[in-house]
Specification:
Helix content is about 30%, strand content about 30%. It is built from 4 helices and 4 strands. The two termini are about 15 Å apart. With about 120 residues, it is α+β, with helices and mostly antiparallel strands.
């Protein structure tokens, strides 16, 4: 399986379990690795035979900016399901970064990474 990766998609969301997170929101960063067969697109040099990563990026940002959830695990699942709606995508790895998580000790990042595939 071939891979198409999108790294560092940024969007502001209102996800989290604390009222301040829901009210003020924060930046979330998403990395995606889409698993698909790129051979048909490469053979015909045809965008219609692969995944349009620009559209995927817009859809993922819409999920992050959309309906708030408590957990970034839930957010990652929603993003994965959005990606798998594209016909050519057979598998997706989603990493959601929450660099401004409400943690009381110094840290660089909090991430949740999931892998989902068509069943």
């Amino acid at each position: 399986m071939d891979r198409v990766a999108l790294r560092g998609l940024k969007a502001r969301g209102h996800h989290g379990v604390f009222p301040k997170e829901r009210e003020e929101g924060q930046t979330f960063i998403v990395d995606l690795v889409l698993g698909l067969d790129t051979r048909p697109a490469a053979a015909d040099d045809d965008l219609a035979k692969t995944v349009h990563y620009g559209i995927v990026a817009e859809e993922v940002v819409a999920v992050v900016e959309g309906e708030p959830v408590n957990l970034i695990e839930t957010l990652a699942e929603r993003i994965a399901q959005t990606c798998l709606k594209h016909d050519g995508v057979h598998e997706v790895q989603v990493c959601v970064h929450k660099p401004d998580a409400p943690i009381t000790v110094p840290f660089d990042d909090v991430t949740v990474t999931i892998t989902r595939s068509r069943v």
